[in-house]
Specification:
39% helix; alpha/beta; disordered N terminus; 498 residues; 5-stranded parallel beta sheet; elongated; Rossmann fold
Length: 498
């Protein structure tokens, strides 16, 4: 009865594992020791290619925790990394672009040697900053070497209109000038984010939002692999992999990525939403923050939480239907975060009801779906010229999702006995104000409902589970025009259509 959860995949390239140090750094502290160890310096793109090749050969995914991309996005990503390309990911909000980008850190070696004290991760064999060059020239094989973890070789910048060249590339540090250095001294430079990620991965989120004059500053990084600091005749031949994300609406229609910069990305990969409700449901079950959900254990509020499969499917189908609705702005997208938020809200409303009724178990019902209006409104853009139509449109989408799951889940061999029971002035009340035990009276009054409820619950006699199944069947009978329904908020009355 519980929703599926994905297998635990504690792979090295899962974003939450990237900051962890799984092995201690090598016990090498000088350039001479590094040379004697046989360590070989290779470009970061080649390092990524080597580690990606090893994962592919072993049958391991390059990115974990991302579902639905196995036959579309991930093969293209593998090709781009094997080709040593810089990558731009195009997709609407909530399509795991940022997670994919952050997961690339797992394709770097865990530890990398640098000249100790270097701000830009100077290669001990090929230093590029004045400080590192002078240190190697002065100390030779005794040059101190430090080790940098791969989590420190990744940086991302959310592109905003106020981002400056100084932020990305660097600027003269007035404090160092005030300390007595000449303005022409290269050591007065305060390096920006890009040089500080030398020999690593630099990610730009929402690249089209970067001012065009700032985008020009990234051209040399991509084409010439170097940067020029204003006021200094210094060029830094950086070794860096650039990854960017963008909304395709901005990218293609508004043309806010300058053409020369667009041309320098080796690979453009289009992301998408989960192809089906089953995939969406697995993502939601994995990402939702639910106390005690999954194993049915007690949560932080002391409740046992169980989400029937049909209720979870309604939440997933709601997002799928929303992505096809002409009433919603599809250009802004319907994020997977909508599914996650709705899943959490549904469980929260069920928990609130259980706490108020003094019950020890929270099982979502159809009456809890009313609470999804608040969690849905902020995540979609409704295209309606009429004031106050938003809630009506969303209620229609929820009803459509419920009907779809009902037709898939419930097969009434002979619905006539149920319909006849309601034809005799039978009235059934349902809603979040009723405790689970009250639904036993409904089954006693309409015995014909017992068999479909039993099949839906796999024979469970748990009052909360039975109440959820019973509400679902009653709502399905209403949506298939077999029962009438009068609703007021989360409370409903079902009666015959006669």
């Amino acid at each position: 009865m519980s929703t599926p959860t994905p297998d635990a995949m504690p792979a090295d390239n899962h974003p939450r594992n990237l900051a962890r140090q799984t092995t201690p750094p090598p016990a090498i502290s000088t350039l001479g020791e590094l040379t004697a160890s046989g360590w070989v310096s290779i470009p970061v793109s080649e390092e990524i290619r080597r580690n990606a090749s090893a994962r592919i050969a072993a049958g391991e995914p390059l990115v974990t925790g991302v579902l639905g991309f196995e036959d579309t996005v991930l093969p293209q990503l593998e090709n781009a990394l094997l080709a040593g390309h810089d990558v731009i990911l195009l997709g609407e909000r909530g399509q795991a672009k940022t997670r994919i980008v952050r997961s690339l850190v797992g394709l770097l070696d865990e530890w990398m040697p640098v000249v100790a004290g270097s701000e830009i991760h100077d290669d001990p064999y090929h230093p590029i900053s004045r400080m590192a060059k002078d240190l190697v020239a002065a100390h030779g094989d005794e040059t101190p070497v430090a080790w940098v973890h791969r989590s420190d070789r990744f940086g991302e910048k959310l592109a905003t209109p106020d981002t400056s060249i100084a932020d990305l590339i660097g600027e003269v540090d007035p404090i160092r000038v005030a300390e007595g250095r000449y303005l022409s001294d290269e050591l007065t430079i305060h390096y920006g984010l890009v040089p500080r990620l030398n020999r690593g991965i630099f990610a730009v989120n929402e690249l089209p939002d970067l001012a065009e004059r700032i985008q020009v500053g990234l051209l040399n990084v991509l084409e010439e692999r170097d940067v020029q600091i204003r006021g200094h005749r210094v060029r830094l031949p950086l070794d860096i992999v650039l990854v960017a994300t963008a909304n395709p609406e901005d990218y293609t229609n508004r043309g806010r990525i300058i053409t020369p910069l667009k041309d320098r990305f080796g690979a453009q990969i289009r992301t998408h939403y989960p192809p089906d409700a089953a995939t969406e449901l697995v993502i939601a079950a994995a990402e939702a923050d639910l106390p005690g959900q999954g194993e049915g254990g007690p949560g932080g509020n002391g409740l046992k939480v169980e989400v029937p499969a049909f209720m979870a499917e309604i939440v997933a189908e709601l997002s799928q239907i929303a992505r096809q609705s002409p009433h919603l702005n599809q250009r802004s997208g319907v994020s997977v975060r909508l599914t996650i938020a709705n899943y959490e809200t549904m469980v929260a409303n069920a928990s609130r009801r259980a706490l108020r009724n003094g019950e020890s178990e929270a099982v979502p019902r159809v009456s809890d779906l009313q609470a999804l209006l608040s969690s849905t409104q902020g995540k979609v853009e409704i295209e309606s010229m009429e004031e106050g139509r938003e809630e009506i449109i969303l209620a229609q989408l929820i009803a459509a999702a419920t009907l779809l799951v009902f037709r898939r889940r419930v097969h009434l061999a002979e619905p006539q006995p149920i319909i006849e029971a309601f034809a005799e002035d039978m009235v059934v009340h349902a809603g979040d104000d009723l405790p689970s035990a009250a639904y036993a009276d409904i089954l006693a009054a309409v015995p014909a409902l017992a068999e479909p409820v039993s099949r839906l619950t796999d024979g469970s006699s748990d009052p909360a589970v039975v109440a959820s199944a019973l509400e679902f069947i009653l709502e399905g009978l209403h949506l298939t025009k077999r029962l009438n329904k009068e609703a007021a908020g989360s409370r409903a009355t079902y009666r015959g259509r006669g």
